[in-house]
Protein 1
Amino acid sequence: RYTSGQDMVSILQLVQNLMHGEEEEETSQAYRLQNVGEQGHMALLGHSLAAYISVLDRERLRKLTTRILSDTTLWLCRLFRYENGSAYYHEDDREGLLKICRLVIHTRYEDYTIEGFNVLYSKQPVIYISSAARTGLGQALCNQLGLPLYCMCRVPCNTMFGSQHQMDVALLDRVIKDDVESGKLPLLLVANAGTPGAGHTDKLGRLKELCEQYDMWLHVEGVNLATLALGYVSSSILAATKCDSMTLTLGSWLGLPAVPAVTLYRHEDPSLSLAAGLTSSQPVEKLRALPLWLSLQYLGHDGIVERIKHASQLSQRLLENLKNLDFIKTSVEDELSSPVVVFRFFREYSNRDQTSHAGQASTIQHPIINNERHIYDTFNQWLGEQLAQLVPASGVDVVELEDEGTCVRFSPLMTSAVLGTEIQDVDQLVDCLKMKIPVLTSTLQLREEFEQEVRRTVGLLYIEDLSWPGLGVVRYNYHSNGKSDDKQEKELEKINTELLKKLNELESDLTFSLGPEFGGQKNCVYIGMVTEDLDVSELVETIAATGREIEENSRLLENMTEVVRKGIQEAQLQLQKANEERLLEEGLLRQIPVVGSVLNWFSPFQASPKGRTFNLTAGSLESTESTYVSKAQGTGTTPPPTPTSSLAKQRLPGQKIFKRSMRSSDGFSETSSVSHCEDLERMDQRPPAPSPGQEQGPLETEKAEEQKEVARAAKTDTEDIPSDKSRDCTKVEEQESQR
């Protein structure tokens, strides 16, 4: 098919189908995750221009690439206050650090180019990274450099003083001393100006002094480096300008698609930079900077600063609003200005609970503490997913932190330029958060009450699932004696599935489901988030009653099937016996084919048809003689009513099920008792008896008779029921009086 080649139109159509699929008109907007503006088109144009420029003659190409590379490097060094720096442009943001490690190895090991790994074997190199660094960064560096994993040292963060996401400088100093004394060579330290999780910045000033003391290379990376372009920069971030190298990810900061990351570094020996791969003699390699060169010229200095400033204002706006919210705990480095805002839902304990929990935490991690943290992690996971779904333009996501647990992160420097986040999006995010907080607090409060109610209710089994964001998990416990485990498991699945269907048919605000798709319990009913006006006892009672109703109906069907089977067998035996009796009554001659016909013609034999009917209500066989006599099918006895849940709770107009009434229970009982007393007083009232000479009309006579009947009924209810002997005596007296 492709031997002769294809035209341009067919190839472009094939690419379009691969990008958008067959349903392009319906789902084209879903695939467009980013609105590519003019600055985005400028960056994309750079890739096409680089391909065209690469076909120029060698001398013209060399001059053009040198100009593009020098201009871009100069602009970036001035923009981010990095004086006398060189730049390396790369697609993978880890590639710059990899090249820096090779540069340091070439610098510290003079014979590395000749002897290779033998030099490293004689004096083991050590690279230090923070425990809060990106996951898998150390392993990736060791794999690319060909070093064993023990050459990578993870430095713990602070535990007592300072931020728990900052590198422990004192501990790092002791570790480096121990490595030097053991004959190792400290090479490089990777610090963070904005950790990947919480966005905290290491103490870069002290780390720089430590690196100078041990002749180490300091490399800095992180999202907070973007604030170096602003007019006011905090001292902790400003210290990054003194480091040996830094990596900048301008694509996400400025919303530019397909632009390379940049690693700025300072080094005096160009030959070692060339050996490490930081520079290239090929002009085509220098064209990587062309998309960034075009984008920087399009945005200008003011446009770049404005975008970074706008992202900082968004984070500051959210941080100010979160301070006024209850049950929201933030984890930021600077309360006044933090480019990354991390927060989570958390309820403070009372003083007594804090003392008991502190005593438990000081010894061993108590199971209750672990369960509570797991529950909070689950709730914050749900909160982050809800906020991201309700306000997608905010760009919030869920992050796992070592000390805090699951948190919600807002990092506008990484998302606002791409998603177009505005101030109103932050305000909408706060409004949604205000609506979700009461739901979280109510569900957290009612979880324990729900567990206690379920454990007290016969027939229900409480399933503890700490990873479920909701009220809880319940299972209707079905036990059947004489059934195998497989049949009992199928019956349990059938009942709980039907129970879930019945609960979803109720007009309530609750969500009932089978739980998560993966990792959930089988044959259970998962109840989602609830509000504070939930009547937990009514909910549990309804679940139990509905389950019993389904179980009784299931057993009734099983019993009916067994009764019908036995009834059919009994009917066959009775019909066989009836046939034998009929043969005896008719005689042997009537069974002969010709003789029997003649005999029946002379002397007909009258026999009533005898059949059997099965009464499903009574579960017994009955004769069909009455049916042939009356020419109609008998209805039999009235079947018993289907068992239903007796939950006829009085509700206010418009009040949904499982909701507590606004009227207090005491007031409701008092009103009911008063109305009941009034009804009794009306029944006890009797009209005065007429005088002997006064005549009564028909209407008055009828009313008097009704009042007598009411009085007689009331008297009968209060008196004891007469015995059988008294009834017989009464009948005898009536007969004698009639005689």
Protein 2
Amino acid sequence: MGRTLQNTMINLGLQNACDEAVYQLGLDMEELEEIEEDAGLGNGGLGRLAACFLDSMATLGLAAYGYGIRYEYGIFNQKIRDGWQVEEADDWLRHGNPWEKARPEYMLPVHFYGRVEHSATGAKWIDTQVVLALPYDTPVPGYMNNTVNTMRLWSARAPNDFNLRDFNVGDYIQAVLDRNLAENISRVLYPNDNFFEGKELRLKQEYFVVAATLQDIIRRFKASKFGSTDTVRTVFDSFPDQVAIQLNDTHPAMAIPELMRIFVDIEKLPWDKAWDLTKRTFAYTNHTVLPEALERWPVDLVEKLLPRHLQIIYEINQRHLDHIASLFPNDVDRLRRMSLIEEGGTKRINMAHLCIVGSHAVNGVAKIHSEIVKTQVFEDFAELEPEKFQNKTNGITPRRWLLLCNPGLAELIAEKIGEDYVRDLSQLTKLHEFVDDDLFIREVAKVKQENKVKFALYLEKEYKVKINPSSMFDVHVKRIHEYKRQLMNCLHIITMYNRIRRDPTKLFVPRTVIIGGKAAPGYHMAKMIIKLINAVAQVVNNDPTVGSKLKVIFLENYRVSLAEKVIPATDLSEQISTAGTEASGTGNMKFMLNGALTIGTMDGANVEMAEEAGEENLFIFGMRVEDVTELDRKGYNAQLYYDRLPELKQAVDQIKSGFFSPKEPNLFNDVVNMLFHHDRFKVFADYEAYVKCQEKVSELYLNSKAWTKMVIRNIAAAGKFSSDRTIKEYARDIWHVEPSDLKIPAPNEPRDAAQDKTPNGTAA
């Protein structure tokens, strides 16, 4: 979620008033804002997407709740020591959190372990361990519409009789100390992005958030007076018409068997009725196609922790497979491929398959990704129910990612086209009229230059390196992962360095290359990549031949509040994943909206950015998905490229020989060995096209006016990538709710009955 103060002031239309009031107290608002800790309760794009969605849902007047876990420790703070990433605990609640309100009156029990007893009246889950879920509410204000939604985060608490009720022979002290075991559930965020780690505590977290949330939803459903004469509602027929639940990846997939358990075991609905209601309630968003990221929980772990849920999953699977067998008799291989249970070795539950079978809609997050989901990853399911599969291209909130982080540009745009674009970003197309307006071109360039000077000052303060603010700011910030190919960027840096040294008098367009992002603590290769970037930076930044022509900076502890500083100052945005691996990306959109040009592959939302702005207004290079597929068919041989490309060979040899690590010549052996023998993401295959494309970038940068005109064309085409547009599509195609642009009267205004929002429609 990042910081809340400035976002709240902007959405409430109070920023200028607050700035002025604070100034009159002899304080500086910006200094105050820097004191607030980021709420870093997610890992990367998926978590930040949820935050943008909350902002858009409130701005569109949807009755929507965001549910999650109130981690005591969020994503780790990254320190760089001697070029290596070191993790520190993110004690973000140390000074308290003024934005949250504990709601002990809505505390709920969550059950674990135990056993299942079957009887004539149905199944009973008994002898369980209970953990209490305590909700904390954070307000989510819409933009200038007086709507305030809720983000409800659950914290784990041990019940007061924890460890004191059974066979306790009087070790009272130990029993109280053991309360920590229960409360550890909400202690810390697992720091993996695009990687599945099948740990028991993680499964406990996933079920904890799901069980608490579903009880909360059902309590609210039963209490609402809708379509019911009873004070408490017991008929669930209207449940899917009143409630829509969107599963953000498979992490909350246990919600499907949990809702079935509530309907069948507790509310005593017949299975078929319960299943119909469940399917109509849930929709699933897929966020990745990387096999190592797909959640596959061992059956024996689920059996121990959630025995009743395993039985329900088996029953869902049996009925699912019976249906497939009736349509495709004797096709045992299809049954194996489509089963929720994977046999062979340890039996596992494929959570994506559970989500597809248990949802009425499945979507990818960019056109190309949704195609891959349909035709490759889940092709058997798409063949069965093609109408279930959709696309919903991701977006970003223009409030945080333009108004808040880039007020200079936001104001410049408002001067030209008015202020309405903040709520309707498609209006940015009006900027096309000004693409040849010399004054506007100069003003856009001036805002960018001011942002660069400000960020250069920040860098010089934090990193003690002198930055040339007229150099091209070439920025690559995102989680560190092999598929995102920070290594390819690194090879380009080395290539530029070698070119400068080969001919120091030759014209070279000066660059400041900024790379930032966190590596999962257990991801060895990602940590080696960080060390390599820092080792290269050490050499490049201290070579007098290079001077101010080339500087390399690794941005420490990349997070939302740092993104808000670097993105408005960026000239060139690096979006260079291997085609077919980045589901969408959202950083790409933030850079586009903030006046950076993109160098990128035809992957994720880059494809649609090129479609909107015209491919000639992005620097697109490299293999397309078809080329990657073809290369896989032939077999990728890295050696071929190494032998054919002298500059690539030189760069790789320097890494291999210890040119960048003279004290430890073999330091990067693992990296080099990976690049030659098991590089799934084919860095060498795109290297040549990447370097050539970078030469075109440098050439255009020399012509400031032509560069800025291309920037304006990009900003004018960025309207599609508002999360407001994304959420309108979810609302229309999946949740079946109507956004409302009614401004609720402020609390101090009289309420006009006619203007009151009628309380019908789904709560998402």
Protein 3
Amino acid sequence: MAQTEKKGGLLRKSSASKKPLKEKVVLMYDEIFMTEDPSKCNPRFWEELFLMKVNLEYLEGKLEALDGEELMKIKDNINCLFQHCIQALGEEHPIRVVNALQTLCALIRGVHQKNKSTSGFDIINMLVGFDKAELCMKNLMESLDSLLCAEGSESLKSLCLKLLLCLVTVTDNISQNTILEYVMINSIFEAILQILSSPLSRREHGYDAVVLLALLVNYRKYESVNPYIVKLSIVDDEATLNGMGLVIAQALSEYNRQYKDKEEEHQSGFFSALTNMVGSMFIADADEKISVQTNEAILLALYEAVHLNRNFITVLAQSHPEMGLMTTPTSPIPATPVTPLGTTPPSSDVISSAELPLDADVQTSNLLITFLKYSSIVMQDTKDEHRLHSGKLCLIILTCIAEDQYANAFLHDDNMNFRVNLHRMPMRHRKKAADKNLPCRPLVCAVLDLMVEFIVTHMMKEFPMDLYVRCIQIVHKLLCYQKKCRVRLHYTWRELWSALINLLKFLMSNETVLLAKHNIFTLALMVVNLFNMFITYGDTFLPTPSSYDELYYEIIRMHQNFDNLYSMVLRLSTNAGQWKEPASKVTHALVNIRAIINHFNPKIESYAAVNHISQLSEDQVLEVVRSNYDTLTLKLQDGLDQYERYSEQHKEAAFFKELVRSISINVRKNLAFNTLSQELLLKEFSTIS
């Protein structure tokens, strides 16, 4: 007996002796694409259609193959199909509901493809007709809301979320997607929250729910009142907020785990052995191969939660017992599409051991630690555009955290000590830190470590000026809190001072190249004012008097860099060029640093001459410093502990518009609606005969 093959909606005998036979569902689609009403000849046409397995590929392809004029001729049938899909969502038979959901996805995507052409017809009119749009979309949103909130099939909920993601992402720029007006009017916000607050639903659908919410929040956010923004900003239910935090933590943990696995695989390979043989000549090049695709969608969700909802700040510090204690669910899980690393929701086995123990003692982790680890990975390489966007968004999130009073309270809490193992970029001149030697410290130390790490590792020709400015601003905001609340943080401040001085040195060494692209004086002024902050207020927040002495020691030891900076800004501020004003601001800001250098250097030289010492030790210099504070005169500088608060709409609107566009394209590309096989569905819906 000849075997039957199936391809592109056709059934044919392998002998090829007869004409190919079309699947019944394909024949029914063909009837819809005629100008006649398909139910005229067969009154049960629509009823039968939704019992047939959907052929997504054929339906989408058929829609895309027609030009605008041809599509307009069958507009009534398209409207009819759309309306019958919505009706089918209310059916008791789950198979009809599944087929209706998949058909809607194909319709929306297929019709939208035509909207990109010159025909320019309106997508809403083509799908539902202007006269029925409001009622149809209301019914659609109510049906989706009911399915998401019901205690029924998890597969149906999964398809509902995929349909909604399809609806949101059909256009690259979601603010131009007019269908979303109906999603704004008929809100599904509460349904999303219900998914996030329920452990089972969250485990199965949390990722899609969080990404959907992040995208909806960004619909015309600067042009009109977006109800999702308003509602997200006032959520105060602990279970819901913790649920959202857990989903984000799991996705970021999965990224961290994948990166760690790749790093270990890379280090154990032949190339690693080769680099060990020849020294570390190629270590930077080798590391560039360790690449895991970043996850901007989940990062955007974290940003919106932190930025819009002050109650979410508490979630950052909440430990996540579920991440270590969850067991694999016994209910069937819908298959997820195969997408690049870092873009898919974590699978259940990942969730059960999502956060890797930091050492043998297995300490508790939280969302902030997971986020800091994620940031330390994506901020290593800013040459790639996606990583640059991710790095910038990480710094924006940290900016919001550094401005928040409650966040600062737990960041600086001495009773909340953690061992945070940040990823450090391999560099020839430093050894890799041993993970187990990390001390337990307040979380703010990890934030400062991350900032120092960024400062040290990104002094390069393609200088990321914007990221450096944000980095210095974060440090400044943390210092302002410490000064205001007199928090004496036991931190290795010398590492920060050294990094800042080396940054100034880099700016001076590359003055010509950098000035062609950037106003380096803005950054130089911020760095100098950080030193002014330490000089003026350091006695209120540095941990010990000797820390203040060490600050002076570092300034004196590295005085040549400050002298060179002064010479450079003096030269440019006395010329009538474009840099006159910004350079002169740096000149004025250096007044106290220069006073310290000019006051102590002669005293140190005198001490060396009297004691016949050619080179003084650190202790001897510190002795001179301590005994000569009394005669030092400094000027009081205003506004050192003031800063401009973060504002998205005025400064970051263009960045977020481009970021959301990129996320929309990526989500659309990775959506898969046919991941549920008919066999799996029949097994799940075993009540259907």
